[in-house]
Design brief:
By secondary structure, the chain is of the alpha/beta class. The chain contains 10 helices and 8 strands. It binds nicotinamide-adenine-dinucleotide (NAD). Nicotinamide-adenine-dinucleotide binds at residues 12-18, 36-38, 41, 80, 93-96, 100, 104, 121-123, 146-147, 239-240.
């Protein structure tokens, strides 16, 4: 799928990550279909998108017209098949449970046209495992966004064993359309790059706190002093 042929993006899962990915796609001018198995979650996701758009407008980052067009371009449904059928690009943001993601990609594989790009927002899983029950594995790719999606610029784009170059390029191009910076990961391994590096830091800083050498707030203050936008423990409060 070429980037210019894409006009509709479906986002499966309207939680913390899904509503953020949907908002970024709206800001990039796409028609977005947001879907979830839970009606309340879907409604909450839509409300969060509306609230975030208004916040961006108050900060002078987008216009009233952009809010109106984004609201217009946002569709929602509880029917996954209906949502999948109409999209040229699908982002998955359901819970980090392998069986849920595998079943979802099996369904998406059946219900989308064969050149639709299917992206998983897994934090840690090997893409080839997520794609296990799909026939057309070449169009399945990892796109690891970070929380909060609208603010965080980097996206890890991960190649599975069967992911085609066209799919990788399409996923990277879509990141750029959403004003994100894609980091290509050619060799898949659990947790990719950022979470692996952070994992080591997490163990180290946890040991510092456990030994009573410093409080989490002190470590966070030190990290901010050294130029980090947010402290390690504060960030952990937001991340899944
Ligand atoms: N939250 C983070 O900081 C973060 C950061 C990067 C990546 N991730 C990854 O993103 C994914 C989503 O995480 P989240 O924090 O948004 O989760 P979340 O719990 O906030 O949202 C998940 C949503 O998926 C819905 N859902 C569950 N099963 C479904 C199904 N079969 N079909 C459709 N919808 C379904 C739930 O109702 C819920 O609304 C996970 O894989 C997670 O590891 C999370």
């Amino acid at each position: 799928m070429k980037i210019d042929d894409i006009n509709t993006i479906t986002v499966v899962g309207a939680g913390d990550m899904g509503h953020g990915i949907a908002e970024c796609a709206l800001l990039a001018g796409y028609k977005v279909i947001l879907t979830d198995i839970n009606r309340d979650q879907l409604q909450r996701g839509i409300e969060k998108i509306h609230a975030s758009l208004e916040k961006l407008e108050k900060q002078g980052k987008i216009s009233q017209e952009k809010i109106a067009s984004s609201r217009n371009n946002l569709l929602s449904t509880l029917d996954l098949k209906e949502a999948a059928t109409h999209a040229q690009f699908v982002y998955e943001a359901v819970p980090e449970v392998l069986s849920i993601k595998q079943n979802l990609f099996k369904q998406l594989d059946e219900w989308t046209s064969k050149d639709t790009i299917l992206a998983t927002n897994t934090s840690n899983m090997v893409i080839t495992d997520v794609a296990k029950f799909a026939h057309y594995k070449d169009r399945i790719v990892g796109t690891h966004f970070f929380n909060h999606v609208v603010i965080m610029e980097v996206v890890e784009v991960i190649k599975g064993r069967y992911t085609s170059e066209e799919t990788m390029q399409g996923a990277c191009d879509m990141c750029v359309k959403m004003s994100k910076v894609p980091i290509r990961i050619e060799k898949e391994s659990p947790s990719f790059i950022v979470n692996r590096v952070n994992g080591v830091l997490r163990v180290f800083l946890g040991a510092v706190v456990d030994k009573g050498m410093a409080e989490p707030e002190e470590i966070d203050a030190m990290m901010r002093y050294h130029g980090k936008p947010i402290g390690h423990f504060e960030l952990s409060d937001y991340a899944a």
